[in-house]
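Example pasted here:
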Amino acid sequence: MGDMMKRELDQHSVIPLYHQLKEIIKENIERGDWAPGDKIPSENELRYNYHISRNTAKKAIEDLVQLGVLNRIQGKGTFVSQPKLEQPLMGFYSFSKVMKEMGMAPTDIILHMIESTATSRIANKLMIDEGDALIELKRLRCANDEPVILETSYIPEYLVRGIEQENVKNTSLYDVMESDFGIIVTKAKEVFEPVLIRDYESEYLQVKEGYPALLLERTAYERNGKPVEFCHSIVRGDRCRFYTELI
């Protein structure tokens, strides 16, 4: 672990002390002095080394935890987080493929796959009638056993009649739709919106209520332009970011 004492805090600066400390911690990480998984000094050590109050040290660490730069483990300390999971916005992306390319192990925990009925909003997205039968698939998508996305897919029941939970346990949903039901997804429309994680979502995603997140809504279409899936996802803002390239 590198020497963090290369910079001093400027007690007379207009920049708050906690923000100065945040920048020093980030510089240590960006410089490679601290690698993902390394434990950083405790709040008491930061207080002693920088002659600051406990609240200042605590505020700096809490802000970096919320940004996903640091990760607190109860009873063990605060550690440098793994890099954020980046996913492109161009064309289709595969969560599993992105995880594997980053050297991480993707896993899906199926919370339920049930028959339900379309609300007015979902019916509008899928161009079906309110009350029509749906297959509702709720999954917790994980990277290295860390929950990242809480995802719920809604598919018109008549399109995938007879589908079983075992079908999608270890296989991409779109692959199952194509191989078992002849449904080829060719395009999708996605909408993103910043949100805060709610209480029941926090239980699944293992972060505190009120943490930053992205609400991702996707409507997928087959070749004839018919919508075949509406997906509602809550994506942890501290662990994921999406990017696009402008040409």
User: Anything to note?
Assistant: Residues 1-5 have pLDDT under 50 and may be disordered.
